[in-house]
Amino acid sequence: MPLLGGIRPPIAVLCVLILTLAGLTAKVLGPTKDMVAPKAVLSSQQHFAEDGAIALRASIDERVTDLERTATALSAGRPVKPERILSDLGRTYQKWTGTSVLDLESGDVLAERGESIPLVWLDRDVLTGERALTPRMVRLETGDVRLMTTAVLDWKDRPQQLLIASSSLSVPAINLGPFRTMAVVAEDGEVLGTAGFEQAEALNSDQERQELAFLQKQMSLLSDQAAARSEQHPVRAKEPGSRGYPGVSGTLVGGEYNGRVATAGYASLASSNPEEKQSVAAGLGLTVVALLPVVQQQTGEQNRELYGLAAAGVLVVLGLLAVGVLWATVQRPLLRLFLESRRLARGDLIRPVTVPRWGEAARIGSALERLRRQLGGDGDGSDTALRKGIRVGGRGPLALTAALLLLWCVPVGLLLNRTDGSVSVPTTMVNDQRDRTDLIADRLRRALNEAQTDLVSTSRLIGADDREDTTRLLQDALGRHTRYQALYVVDADGEVRARAGAEPHPWSRGKELPLVRVSGKGGNEPVIQAGAPVPERKGSTLVGEIRVEFLNSLLARPGLGEVRVVDSAGLTIAASDGFLAFEKLPPNALTDLVRAAGVRVGAGPVENGLLIREGDGVTVAAAAPFSGGGVTADIGWTVVSWQDAERFQIAPYEREDRSVLAGMLGLAAIIFCLGWIYLVVVRPLRALAAGAEKLADGDLKTVLYPRYQDEVGAVVRSLELLRQQAQAHRHNQARRPAEPRPSVGGR
After folding, report:
1. With 565 labelled, which of 270, 326, 338, 528 sits at a CA distance of 20 to 30 A?
2. What is the b/e burial string over 318-355, where b = at least 16 CB atoms within 10 angstroms of the residue's CB?
3. Which of 32, 179, 28 is nearest to 650 (CA)?
4. How far apart, in whole angstroms, are the C-alpha atoms of residue 186 and residue 673?
């Protein structure tokens, strides 16, 4: 018989699949590999490092863009004194530790503000070549590292001047939460800046100082490892099919001290969308490392080995019973029919056919016995006793086999290791949800402040009366800033004097109205507007409408669930997923959380995290109101995020997922193997039974063709031989009366 034909291969494959699934069950439902920290905690540190890298990249890129835009705007106008340049620059942007203006022809410093900038690093490579005027990292005499950003001031008929701004490479001013530290690391593993470490002088005991020294040492060691891993290609560093952060990121585990293990996440600075815009910060080779000591995990799964073995043993027992049913009710009768039909086809008509007890095999066996009697001259084989048999088809054994295997698959997949609302979620996950939500809120607030600052810078370039020049300026600004969907100048009467982009919306005036506001309630989407007064036109305002898609892109972060921005009334303005304009938050608990986060505590509102248990579900939620400086500090917006705890890689949910997977694999094995048996054996056997009965009833004209090269096909071939023998036997009987009879009595 062919390897893939007949009844034996599917039953053998079913045995192999059952044994394989039993082995996997013993492994995955047994004790898991000991982890010093839950996978969910490690993944959370990785996401936190990615958020920090995004914030640092955006901060550096904004500094470079602001300086270049300022230099371009100044070069397009009349010459300005160096002192005035630095004064306006410091008034508009408070992000540089020091600024300076240098005469490129003479090399003299024309003006300087803030921290003194050394000029030793200035050479021909800085000002010429492919990497001219790109930011450079320079070490000061104090040992600190500064990022030097340069731009050229070029006025007609005047020597070129070099505008230099220095800034620290410190960790962005984000909320790190309790016990977490963060560092900015260079390509060689050197730590350029840290945040979150306490000062040794402020500690009260030697044990606290020893723990601080341990964490600092771990940060240094893990930073070296992170810098080495960040040199990988972003695509090759990720697992196949993984997406998310465009740069290199991962997790590290350090040493242990006093029952706590140092866990770290790292992420290299990468462009948010390399196809659209290259990031200057991404080319600096920097890496952000987030370090958090966590309590060493106690697995408590010593007894789960027997648990997995018991489940595997039950599967083996039920599998053996199922295979026994198939062997006794399908394979054995079919093989017996194969042998009996071959015996009859060879001419052995003496011994009666052993007829199976029921099903298609009984019908075929009865037909063979009737054919044997017809060919042997024992009658026409029409005895009704030969037609008896239980009329349960071959589908009955398959249903019984499926029922036996489902007795294991259904409880394992749907009932075993089920979780409920009492699942223990690590406190670190709630804290990280809160801190990351606060980081998103800070990032969004800075982006809106930056948008309004851009408008202030652009408004100073708008002349008094020239409408065409103003329109051209707005079109150029709209092309350089993808965050806007429309830019327009509104006069004191609210009339639009110049515009670029989409159709403008009305701009309301009022002393109490903020410069960044939301309108369009009742429409298809919120309208976010930012304004800046035009100095040359009294009463006029430059208005920019910020795209909602731009805000949505800032909210989408892996491992944070659904994120929304709501106003003071709790109505949705932007979201990481789809939303309806100004819709309310889903559950009441989130509304209460947003309201609680808006309560002023001390200097202002603070972020809050919450673990919501409703029924069998557990949800981790957090809300972070806008706080800090800038025009959006008092706007009244809140970033709220929530996600089901089922997404966390913690032991109870992982065990539940493994149980569901085991049940689904068992169900797949049932469908595959029993479907194979039905298509290859049962269905052809039903057709064969009908053909055999017609043949036994006297239909000798219908030729039987074997379709399969297996046991069923062999029985069909034997029946075809029997049909031919029966046909020849009938012809012989028809010719006997025509032959002359011999003489009797001497006549």
Report:
1. 270
2. bbeebbebbeebbbebbbbbbebbebbbeeebeeebeb
3. 32
4. 57
Residue 628 has pLDDT above 80, yes or no: no
For the record, the structure tokens of 101 come out as 């203006």
What is the rounded average pLDDT for all residues in the chain? 83
Task: For residue 149, give both structure tokens.
Answer: 């950003």
Q: Phi, psi at residue 619, to the nearest 5°?
A: -125, 135
Distance of CA 665 to the CA centre of its chain: 23
For 208, residues 6+ apart whose C-beta sits below 8 A from its C-beta are none
Largest CA distance in the chain: 156
Tens of pLDDT, residues 469-512: 888 888 988 887 888 999 999 988 888 889 999 999 988 877 67
In which band, very low, low, confident or very high, does the pLDDT at 629 lie, cut at 50, 70 and 90?
confident
Give CA–CA dist 689/370, Å, rounded: 13
- Nearest 5°: CA angle at 103, between 102 and 107? 90
Rounded CA separation 153/131 (Å): 18
The total of other beta-carbon atoms located within 10 Å of residue 268's CB is: 30
For the full predicted model, state whether its pTM sits above 0.85.
no
Q: How far apart are CA 606 and CA 585, in angstroms?
A: 20
Question: How sure is the predictor about 742, in pLDDT bands with cuts at 50, 70 and 90?
Answer: low
Pair of tokens at residue 515: 């410069």
Tell me the two tokens of residue 558.
């892996």
pLDDT, one tens digit per residue, over 151-192 is 898 888 888 899 999 988 877 767 777 788 899 999 888 888
- The stretches of 377-466 forming alpha helices (DSSP H) are 395-410, 427-459
Per-residue CA distances from 545 to 33, 296, 407, 485, 567 (Å):
53, 50, 62, 6, 17
Give φ, ψ of 106 to 5 degrees: -100, -20
